[in-house]
Amino acid sequence: MSTDDHRMATEKRVTLPPEYDDLHVGVALFDPEAGAVLDANDWVETILGYAVSELRGLPIEAYTANTYPRSGDGLKARLRASTGGRPQRFTWRAKRADGELVWVQVRSSRRRVDGRECVYAELQDITEYYDTYHRAELFWRVLRHNLRNEATVISGNATPIAERAGAERLRKAGETIRLRAEKLGKMADSVEEIQRAVVGTDTRRVRKHATVAVRTVAREVSAEHPGAEIAVVEREGMWIRVDDAFADALSHALENAVVHAESAEPTVEVAVGPSPNTGRVEIRISDGNPPIPEGELDALFDPDITTSTSHGTGIGLFVMKWCVESLGGEVRFERSGEGNDVYFYLPPEASPDEG
């Protein structure tokens, strides 16, 4: 037993008054040092999916998204800061008992309960608001930067055609216009995919064998890129509940791995199995391409970065992120000199045999 666990076991249990169970906002008492839940009302059970009796025995990392920048250690630090006399307000990426990730707004402050110093925290599930707000940010990003820039290129290349330049120059300008127009069309498709993902409902989702779902998308991408080899490896059979957002996300991941390859015959490996840390379904897409630019990943994970210097060359990464998060999952990226690894983490479903 750790020092914190021993101290908590020997101290008197603190409890909230039963009237707090009538509130439609989560209220929890945290240990300021260990960060563990000491007591909570019924609404916290609704947000996190754990019974209060279970939460008391769980480390904070068990119900925090461990692959996201707002980690368990970060939450502990904010809770400890509350004991300094200054109330805290922050956003937390929580992981429910069923593996689904939710955004939670936390307001915390110091409070003495039953003679013991605690952190009093109010929790609100803001997932729907968070998704709506950042979807709007993405749309503004597309409108003021990507679409505008592409329109400028099209306009600039139309000029020499209007001026009746030589045949070769006309051919190059026409080809550039064609390619940029195609890119604009793909951007519009990406926005539609994001919108379809974030307004989708659970009633449209079906349970699928994860490897079968991955192979279906891989075959479609392979048909469009016959020179590429996309190998799907099953580490362990698992099931997921998905809709079109899953296919959209995986298609973008595979397309990026193929089109950004330096080889004319690129190889992409997709491994499917359980996450070693959480037991969620892990889908890893590995390529041998140059590393994804750091600026694109910064803009992807930090919604406060909205200046023109943070914009990437497209919005495919945003499509992946939004689509996976709409399914209660998350994405993670690893870069190295040998290529990129893109991870999808999704809540696992019981197999049909398990009911």
Order of strands across the main sheet: 2-1-5-4-3
Mean pLDDT figure? 83
CATH architectural group of the largest domain: 2-Layer Sandwich
Q: How many β-strands, per DSSP? A: 12
Which residues sit in consecutive blocks of at least 5 with pLDDT less than 50?
A: 6-10, 306-313
Global morphology:
elongated
Order of helices and strands: HEEHHHEEEHHEHEEHEEHHEE
| CATH domain class of the largest domain | Alpha Beta
Strand count, sense and closure of the main sheet?
5 strands, antiparallel
Number of domains: 2
Helical content band: 40-55%
- The end-to-end span amounts to 37 Å
The amount of beta strand, in percent, is 15-25%
* CATH topology-level name of the largest domain: Heat Shock Protein 90
In CATH, the homologous superfamily of the largest domain goes by the name: Histidine kinase-like ATPase, C-terminal domain
Spatial extent as radius of gyration: 24 Å
Structural class: alpha+beta
Number of helices: 10
Molecular structure report:
This protein has 355 residues and is α+β, with helices and mostly antiparallel strands. The chain folds into 2 domains: 3-125, PAS domain (Beta-Lactamase), CATH 3.30.450; 129-354, Heat Shock Protein 90 (2-Layer Sandwich). The protein is built from 10 helices and 12 strands. It has helices spanning 3-10, 42-48, 52-56, 72-82, 127-162, 167-198, 210-224, 244-259, 294-301, 316-326; strands at 26-30, 37-40, 88-95, 101-113, 116-125, 206-209, 229-234, 239-242, 267-274, 281-286, 330-336, 339-346. Strands 2-1-5-4-3 form a 5-stranded antiparallel sheet, sandwiched between helices. Helix 7 packs across helix 8 (244-259). It is elongated. Mean pLDDT is 83; it is low at 6-10 and 306-313.
